[in-house]
Amino acid sequence: MMSDVTFDSIEVGDSLPALTQREISRTTLALFAGASGDHNPIHIDIDFAKAAGMPDVFAHGMLNMTYLGHLLTAWVPQSAVREFSTRFVAITQIHAEVTCTGRVVEKREGNLVALEIEATDQNGEVKLAGKALVELP
Amino acid sequence: MIDRTFIGRSFAPLTVAVEAGRLRAFASATNQRDPIYRDRIAAQAAGYRDIPAPLTFLFTLDLEREDPFYFINEMKIELARVLHGEQAFTYGAPICAGDEVTLTSTVEDIFDKKGGALEFVTLKTHATNQLGKDLGTMTRSIVVRNA
Fold it and tell me: How many other C-beta atoms lie within 10 A of the C-beta of residue B3?
């Protein structure tokens, strides 16, 4: 994918185009378990989740982190991404509709741009609070 | 309490193939619409050797073991008490379909908070490919709910 984002074209405070994902269903979690190899039953087996003291299954943290990754690679080519990290702030419940947002917080020497990124649910509750460092042309 | 002597310990390395079919399944499961993540021609047109592995895929590669939860089980942690606390990646050379990736994981730290009610394990994984190229690292922190 071609990107027209360059170091000179962006300013601190700029926002990345937000990305809203489809609702996380039980099917989403089953397919992600299979595709990602994360078979932890707490995400796909309600009996196991309840026995662990949870009201229901909940989304894999890595599913939402992958959605945050989509936010980055929809903005710049993946090869521009040097660092990407997140804290999993809160559990993402089943049926959540996650929106990923990000903004430029710093421009550094070496054409590096620091971003703060976030995944929130349909109620505005922050689920993932992350950072990324991208190197722009 | 998790045995603190695990700090600094490395686990057996894993070498795993990056399969195009698996990358397509991952793209489908995560609603990835960009064609470079499923189509070799599109990926090559974008400058990749082959379909690139997405930014979080190293985590998936490390799960390709007989026991995907190897470090959790070796440390005798109960899986039902585990939450994912933090995850970080740094990137080196791109990972593409057809690559053979070797992952080596080391326990960086184990500590507790709230009088042991919560324990934290930080595991750092280094990745290289079949050409010996550095693919970067991932660092995961898990939280164990003891209370």
Answer: 11
Cα dihedral A27, A32, A38, A39 in deg (nearest 10): 20
Query: Chain A to chain B, count of Cβ pairs less than 8 Å apart?
Result: 107
Written out in words, the top-level CATH class of the domain with range B4-145 is: alpha beta
Instruction: Tell me the chain B residues in contact with residue A82 when contact means C-beta distances shorter than 8 Å.
Output: 90-91
Task: Write out residues in chain A with pLDDT < 70, as ranges.
Answer: 1-3
User: What is the model's pTM?
Assistant: 0.96
Contact yes or no for B103/B14 (Cβ under 8 A)? yes
CB atoms within 10 A of CB A42: 20
Quick one: tokens of B29? 């499961």
> What pLDDT, on a 0 to 100 scale, did the predictor assign at position A1?
44
Tell me which of A40, A43, A50, A72 to substitute to probe the interface with B (most B C-beta atoms closer than 10 Å): A40
Residue B33 CB contacts under 8 Å (≥ 6 apart), including other chains:
none
Q: Could you write out the three-class secondary structure of chain A?
A: CCCCCCHHHCCCCCECCCEECCCCCHHHHHHHHHHHCCCCHHHCCHHHHHHCCCCCCECCHHHHHHHHHHHHHHHCCHHHEEEEEEEECCCCECCCCCEEEEEEEEEECCCEEEEEEEEECCCCCEEEEEEEEEECC
Model-level ipTM above the cut of 0.90: yes
Half-sphere exposure of B72 (CA within 13 A, CB side): 20
Distance from CA of B5 to the nearest CA of A (A): 26
Using the Cβ of A48 and the Cβ atoms of chain B, whether some distance falls under 8 Å is answered with yes
Q: Taking the domains of chain B in order of start, what are their residue ranges?
A: 4-145
CA–CA distance, B5 with B1 (Å, rounded to integer) = 11
